[in-house]
Amino acid sequence: MPDEFVAEWEFSPPRPAPGSRVVAAIVRAIQATASFFLFVLTAAVALGADVLARRGPARRGLTTRCEQTAEGCPPTTVGSLKRICYARDDFLPGLDFGAAHSAPARGVVAALVRAIQATVSFSVLVLTVAVALGADILARGRPAGRAATRAIAGSETRARLVVPALVLAATLGASIALRVWQIDALGYNSDEAVYAGQAASIADDPKLQEFFPVFRAHPLLFQSILSIGYHFGVNDLFGRLVSAAVGVATIGIVYMLGSLLYGRKAGILAALFVALMPYHVVVTRQVLLDGPMTLFATLTLYFLARFATTERPEWLYAAGAAMGLTFLSKETSILFLGAIYAFFALAPSVRVNIRDLVLSVGIMALVIAPFPLSLIFAGRAETGEQYLTWQLFRRPNHDWAFYPTTVPEVIGPLVILAAIAGLWLLRRENSWRETLLLSWIAVPALFFQLWPVKGFQYLLPIAPPIAVLAARTLARWSPAESLSILRGRLNGTWIAPLAAGIIAVTLLIPSWQRIQPSTSDSFLAGSGGVPGGREAGKWIDEHVPEGAKLLTIGPSMANILQFYGHRKAYGLSVSPNPLHRNPSYEPVPNPDLLLRSNELQYVVWDAFSASRSSSFSESLLRYADRYNGRVVHTESVRVTTPDGEKAEKPVIVIYEVRP
């Protein structure tokens, strides 16, 4: 099919018009944002490798000295609690460059780690250059030909350049506002606490190392980036602002993708839809791995589109590097390899050389390599096996209707409708472009629909290609003649702007509603912060003696209280069966015994866990009653009663118990 809507770019325009300078400035700002973000990744890789190479001797010596002096340290009594001197190496257990290895062995290990650092840094550098090149093409390019040169010089064309530039600037401004407005109003949820806790452990934070081991279920790219800021202190705001910056950078890449596939108008509309989309807004306001995964997945999609357009292997290599970063953000993104395979299989017009494909996969493997190698060097290779076993045997947490009833609402029903309508209305223009976008949507959507474990944020990477398809419909389709509406006449050229405005409003209103601080006593994982969690944790940190241990209904509240309260917490609902529990969580096989022997001093009830597991909630309250539980602190939210009045409803209650 003809590609009349895909502009050819010329690199030396004789006289760029004022409007083109505005567009160039905005696109170069996007370029700078992407390049800076990738530079931060390079610094994070360097820092992580340096920690791996230098960490061992000092930690080993510290542990040895503490073990030698622990016997002579007298216990001191605080109430009914005993403080005991102990020493732990929670940073990288098993990574010992001192006693366990000779000097030559230490040199070999350090050399290997620094080789990994150099490889990943080089890959990220290549990726940065590729992004810079793509943005430079967008910033400097213009339609080729003498007629186009004369058109750019005209005032009408300048207006057409300035208006889209202003719309793009307004889109980025709205995306920033939606992602930072009251971003710190609520404390972390459980997943946020875990990822921020990992980042704090990487930064060697003494208060959180004990509770959050570095190696858990996922790779450590985003946590390593957060750890750079956490060297100056751990706080909620920094982590969420970094996540919001990732979300805004994704919008820039969506603009580049839409412009490449369907023209600048489609790029702006796609960026607008993602900027206002409740799904993307809500997730990128949290310290979650799905935001960075979506950023790099969309970047991979952009590079694949570049390759299909130009058939230059450099773009395929860049796609391999971006795919590696996508995996390092979250390992479930390996599903996109299936999407890439489906695209090449279903789009024979896109020719790919096997040698180039193998080299691209090799680049991806080099980028991914630091994660498994770090597990091996740290003596934690079994950690990956344990988490894989747990993931395979996890019990379903939602029914089959969860995604069909939840995700379309937050992506935007009109966005999905526009995307589907365009596939039919523009069916004569269908090409490899639609095959690429649909493959990117279908593979993860089908997998997670069939997979028993479902999460609110798991399907976020499919939002950008859906937005691009919707933008394609509005940018490319227009009625051939005027339409008659209520005896009046509406020119067909206004259909697309009117539809875009309606879609934008239907996205903006629910996004604004969802970013307001929640006052509900129910909670959906991945949908925002937890009311009262931060406040309860800080109360524990200030009022509960050091060394005290808490019992909660489930591990979610335990994670939050450990992050803010710096006290060990156990989840009553954690299964003693290793196949049915997260390997990071410790079960409580006999709560009665621990409470009776005063090993557990506080019991914490919360409405969010109770709504998901009423049986464990009742069990915990029975323990509080049996062991003379006394309410020492309560966190409440204001709710509206059935008769319309405002009332305080407890959501977290802390009991002090004693035998």
Description:
The protein is of the alpha/beta class. The chain folds into two domains: 18-47 and 118-386 and 399-514, no CATH class; 533-656. A hairpin with a 2-residue loop joins strand 1 and strand 2 (81-83). 61% of the residues lie in helices and 7% in strands. The chain has 26 helices and nine strands. It starts with 17 loop residues before the first helix and ends with a strand. The chain has a five-stranded mixed β-sheet, with helices on both faces. Strands 1-2 form a two-stranded antiparallel sheet.
Salient structural properties:
659 residues, globular, alpha/beta
Describe the structure concisely for a colleague:
The chain is of the alpha/beta class and 659 residues long. Helices cover 61% and strands 7% of the residues.
**Cα gyration radius (Å):** 27 Å
Structural class: alpha/beta
Oligomer: single chain
SS element count, helices:
26
The percentage helix is 55-70%
Task: Please state how the strands of the largest beta sheet are arranged side by side.
Answer: 6-5-7-9-8
Number of strands: 9
Number of structural units classed as domains? 2
Classify the beta-strand content into a percent band: 5-15%
The average pLDDT value, as a whole number, equals 78
Poorly predicted tracts of residues: 1-20, 38-146
| First-last Cα distance | 79 Å
**Overall morphology:** globular
Major sheet description: 5 strands, mixed
Question: Layout of helices and strands, plus pairs?
Answer:
Elements: H1 18-54, H2 56-70, E1 76-78, E2 81-83, H3 103-140, H4 146-153, H5 155-180, H6 190-202, H7 221-230, H8 236-262, H9 264-276, H10 278-283, H11 290-310, H12 313-329, H13 336-346, H14 354-368, H15 370-377, H16 381-392, H17 402-411, H18 413-425, H19 432-450, H20 463-476, E3 483-485, E4 488-490, H21 495-514, H22 533-543, E5 549-552, H23 555-565, E6 568-571, H24 591-596, E7 602-606, H25 607-612, H26 614-626, E8 630-640, E9 646-656
Parallel strand pairs: 5-6, 5-7
Antiparallel strand pairs: 1-2, 3-4, 7-9, 8-9
Helix pairs in contact: 1-3, 1-5, 1-7, 1-8, 3-12, 3-14, 3-15, 5-8, 5-9, 6-7, 6-23, 8-9, 8-11, 8-20, 9-20, 9-21, 11-12, 11-19, 12-14, 13-19, 15-16, 18-20, 19-20, 20-21, 22-23
